[in-house]
Amino acid sequence: MREGARVRRTHGLFALFTLVSAAAVHAQAPAAEHSLSADVLLPDADRHGTVNVPMDSWVYPALERLASLGYVPSQNVSIRPWTREECLRQLRQAEDVYQSSASTESLDREAEPLISELSRELDHDRDGWTLESVYARAGTIAGTPLNDSFHFGQTWRDDYGRPYEQGTGGLAGYSLRGSTGRFFFHVRQEVQQIPGAPGISAAHSVLYNQLDGTPAFGSGPPSPAFAPVAPSGAYTRQTPLLLYAGVAFAGNALSFGKQEIFWGPDTAPWSFSSNAEPTYNLRLVSTRPHPFPFLPQLGTYKFDLVIGKLSGHKYPARPYFNGQKVDLTFGSNLELSVTRWSLLWGVGHPMTLGSLKDNLFSTQSTGVTYGYGERTDPGDRKSDFDLRLHVPGIRKYATVYADAFADDDLNPIDAPRRCAWITGLYLPRLPLAPHMDFRFEMNSSEELSQDEGLARPLFINNQYRDANTNKGFLLGNAVGRDGRAFEGRLGYWQTARTRVEVGYRQTKISESFLPAGGTVSDAFGKASLHFRPDWTTDVFVQHERWLIPADLPGIHNNTSARLTILWTPNRHL
């Protein structure tokens, strides 16, 4: 409920930066012997504005695998999405390393099809309008799903916050990009058909208000955020999934509109991910790595500054957020980043320069000093620290990463046992099975020191009761507010665009949060088949088993599937 003390020591974080950066530079892989400063400085690209590659594109796993195999030593992953120009820069570096490296023949056999497919995708950009894609998707859920990660869980994750319910639905959409000189524009429009929803019962309304600590406004009767809601029928809506424009300059871009933010090295970071619908925001971001001033041989940096609006909130309604992230890469092995972001303004909180100044610089503790609804409250401030390490000595075979989130500390490293953590391991190729990769992640939004449950929950504070959500979906990882999960994924690469992946995830919800706790188990499989030059079929299947007595008594199962047909002509109009 409280934000906590804002004045904390930060020397631990800087000491960690110093130690690990020195170790990373000392242990650089041979592939990084190419000049990083020369690789990242592309003057022609800086004068050309290009749009972002959406996070659900096959380009990301292909480039990440190339980097883990040692072919993109200057890659940064903690600030995404990448522009098409940045993806092309990484591709050019991979081609250069591929041509000149002394890597083993088996590694080259894994890299060559990835480089070839990426070349066909990225090589033909030019000014004007381009029809990127046209797609259609049908999906069904047989059984009772979970669709409230803020309280119980989420059956379909990392799907841009698209609504879903039990039954069959579908969508159709297109994406169009345009550029001229430094200026760029991108639109991705969808028509979505969603099955009917069961509504919210009186018992669930009471539970939600208990879990969220919903306050009353003024001296009148309580006005709960969740009141009983009658069932609703199926509906159809048209919505822009992405809609933004901007200008590029000096390796940076200033853009405005509905656009993605993805901050972290994991599949679903804590702060911003693909789990919720993209927000409307104003953003200043590095579009490529920049060499460190004065010490370019040490590594590179990137930054992301954003201010935007959240939707679907009730306590208070219509809040905004601002965020700042700095990403540092040392040599070819180590990447570190720090994040500070916050909720502010909204109904009852004036939108002034003074309140913005207090939000950015005040050291007052929200939970100690301010009651709910006070106009001078400085906002709900949060921090994040993440890292990715290509393990020295075996950097082409193993990558580890971590993501720590704190709701009441200047940085999570000051009090690591009071934070939410994600740790992960990625193996880009397996012994005796070079076409296969493996990923394993463990997530915990429980404190490591002790589980305080509702006494000190993450992703919420005494002012902003809907907090880390956009239109009801968690902005970050869908493990929820007081849960732990592990997940493993095994993938087989035939080509960069033809890939099969199977996985298993289990989530445990704490009894300190939900009465009697809960368990959710998911077994899933995904397959992408690139069967024509411009055509791809994506298939997703999942079986879920869950036991959450606070939601519904007994054990429940659901089986779901989605089929997507994607046409990517990249046709100039």
Largest sheet: 18 strands, antiparallel, barrel
Q: Count every beta strand, where a strand is a DSSP E run of 2 or more residues.
A: 26
* Uncertain residue ranges: 1-38, 217-221
Distance between the termini: 53 Å
Task: Please give the radius of gyration in angstroms.
Answer: 23 Å
Averaged pLDDT: 87
Number of discrete domains: 1
CATH architectural label: Beta Barrel
Helicity level = 10-25%
The outline comes out as globular
CATH class: Mainly Beta
Q: Which class of secondary structure composition applies to the elements?
A: alpha+beta
* Strand residue percentage: 35-45%
- Write the CATH fold name: Porin
CATH homologous superfamily title: Capsule assembly protein Wzi
Annotation field: number of helices: 9
Detail the topology: elements first, then pairings.
Layout (H helix, E strand, L loop, with lengths): L10 H16 L9 H5 L2 H4 L12 H10 L10 E2 L3 H17 L4 H18 L5 E16 L3 E2 L4 E2 L12 E14 L2 E12 L7 H11 L22 E15 L2 E8 L2 E2 L15 E8 L3 E2 L7 E11 L10 E11 L3 E11 L8 H9 L4 H4 L10 E11 L8 E8 L13 E8 L8 E9 L24 E2 L2 E2 L8 E11 L5 E11 L8 E15 L2 E14 L3 E16 L3 E2 L1
Antiparallel strand pairs: 1-9, 2-5, 2-25, 2-26, 3-4, 5-6, 6-7, 7-8, 8-10, 10-12, 11-12, 12-13, 13-14, 14-15, 15-16, 16-17, 17-18, 18-21, 19-20, 21-22, 22-23, 23-24, 24-25
